[in-house]
Amino acid sequence: VPGAGAALRPCSSRVAQDGINKPVIDRIIRVDHAGEYGANRIYAGQMAVLGRSSVGPVIQQMWNQEKNHLKRFNELMVAYRVRPTVLLPFWNVAGFVLGAGSALLGKKGAMACTVAVEESISEHYNNQIRTLIEEDPEKYKELLQVIKQFRDEEQEHHDTGLEHDAEATPAYSVLKTAIQLGCKAAIFLSERI
Amino acid sequence: KMAAAGGLQRAGWRLWRARRAVVRCQQYPPLCALQASAALRAPSDEHKKEPWASSSQQHFDSPPAGHQPEQKPQGPHPSYTGQGGQESEDYESEEQLQHRILTAALEFVPEHGWTAEAIAEGAKTLGLSVAAAGLFHSDGSELILHFVSECNTKLSELLKNEQKLVQLGQAEKKPIDEFLRDAVEARLRMLIPYIEKWPQALSVLLLPRNIPSSLTLLTSMIDDIWHYAGDQSTDFNWYTRRAVLTAIYNTTELVMMQDSSPGFEDTWRFLENRVADAMTMSNTATQVQSTGEAVVQGLMGAAVTVSNAGTSRAVR
Lengths: 193, 316
Fold this sequence. Notes:
The structure holds two protein chains of two kinds. Chain A is mostly helical. Chain A has a single domain, classed as Ferritin (Up-down Bundle). Chain A is built from six helices and no strands. Chain A is elongated, with a radius of gyration of 18 Å. The two termini of chain A are 19 Å apart. The N terminus of chain A is likely disordered. In chain B, α2 packs antiparallel against α3 and α5 packs across α7. The relative contact order of chain B is 0.07. The chains are: A mainly alpha, B mainly alpha. Chains A and B meet through α2 of A and α1, α5, α8 and α11 of B. Chain A: It comes from Molothrus ater. Chain A: Keywords: Iron, Membrane, Metal-binding, Monooxygenase, Oxidoreductase, Ubiquinone biosynthesis. Chain A: InterPro entries: Ferritin-like_SF, Ubq_synth_Coq7. Chain A: GO terms for molecular function: 3-demethoxyubiquinol 3-hydroxylase activity; metal ion binding.
């Protein structure tokens, strides 16, 4: 904080895991945690509407994997002492509404939502993997492993959605673009606040 | 890459300080040379305390009229960027020097307050010229922020050591309310030697210029306390808990300013009550939530029963 006049670093009292790039790791974990939390709520919304339909088991299985992802990020968040995003209550509601809303458009609508979201998330994880590799692949080995594994699983969800006729949804491209824009905004905000 | 970036950063920092030295030049000509030389001290400069003191005395004693203050450097000094950012082992950075001056100044705060006088006295004990106080703002902001930062570091150390003892099995793990109470008390006790002048410090910390730094120091201290208390929340509770503890800390601090009881026992009793209130509130919140959930389930059950009754009547 140069504006304070003297060359004081007020946060020198906080000792993070030595040598890691705290701001970068903070952002990564915060936004990923928010993402998995949102994904959980989306699947919860979809299950609320389509739980008893034929795609119920498929959605349930994807939801279970997201629950594991969230659990893992909860652990990482505590380990790295990262602050969660303030917007969590908002993502709680917005995720559920998106899931339930897309499910009300029918099974294909729910799958379209899944495809859109999972595509956004995979791209986002790929960006993070690139960032971490640029920083120091050795230092962040564990985190890289986690993100790579999750990216692969999200990619699977994306493919599952396509298999279940996501593209046959009426207004598929409009729906997909809108959802992906929303995801980009969510990622932007969650990284910062 | 990182070393070069660090070297450039330091060079840029020094250029910024040199420019600040020019601004001050216009206000305090006798301090000019001191400022400029401080800003321009090359990394390879081995001379520290004695020559610094003697050269500054020289500049201070010579008449301002005949004295040509050193102007701003012509550009980034080749010596620091040229050396690749490597510093000799016994090089004392500007930050370290300021740190030492401020630490020495704390001793004089009870007498002089958080002022340039205290800093000047501190500088004197280190064998530096009193003009060194010109390195800092006249309202004592840096001194106060330095003090707060030091207290927070001490608190962190204390909590870390306590945690180690618990992990080694040499101490009992405290219940949360006791832990929070003890941590806040330990931190507030660090103010006791300076308690007379602390209200002045609080008002300086609230100056708009200082708010970002003082807020950061406060939030990181509160986060530290919760971390060692074992907080592992990853939802909105993270914010709620820190907000509650910040409120407890701030109000207790204010009570302490007005407290004239022996050993500040009124303050500690106030603190105990506030922490107890917070625990009660959190228990109540949990109870309200489970009651709410139970009510919702009851209503759902009632709705299902009614609809079943309706369909069975329709069948009949």
